[in-house]
Design goal:
Oligomer: single chain
Number of helices: 1
Helix content: under 10%
Largest sheet: 4 strands, antiparallel
Structural class: mainly beta
Shape: globular
Distance between the termini: 37 Å
Number of strands: 12
Order of helices and strands: EEEEEEEEEEEHE
Radius of gyration: 15 Å
Length: about 120
């Protein structure tokens, strides 16, 4: 669980964990939500979220409230199995699109793929 408080207007991209296919997520399941300045939203632990996006050239500001010790280092004992492979920090799992080599180099699993509609 996390709380996002929009200090400026922003857009959140969200998907449900239940829409994953193994360790992969097809982006057709991702939905965009406009969050106006001053609004607070709770993001459930069963919701996958991506970095907020700006809606103006001024960027965005967002206060994020997380459970204690979230995003602190963890000690991994090998590669892990199943979703353990996605565990990046305490309470933080990451998958990344293959085009995001900056993230792939930090060890998240490549698992986002895009359905191209004709």
């Amino acid at each position: 669980m996390r709380i996002n408080v929009a200090a400026t207007d922003l857009v959140l991209f969200l998907a449900r964990v239940f829409d994953m296919d193994g360790l992969n997520l097809n982006t057709k399941y991702v939905k965009a939500f406009y969050i106006p300045k001053g609004e607070a939203v709770e993001i459930y632990s069963t919701t996958m979220h991506f970095a907020p996006c700006k809606v103006s050239d001024f960027g965005f500001k967002c206060v994020v409230v997380l459970p204690k010790e979230t995003n602190t280092p963890i000690i991994k004992s090998g590669e892990g199995i199943g979703e353990e492979r996605l565990l990046f920090m305490k309470n933080k799992w990451i998958i990344a699109h293959g085009d995001r080599q900056d993230l792939i180099e930090r060890e998240p699993i490549e698992g986002l793929w895009v359905l191209i509609m004709n």
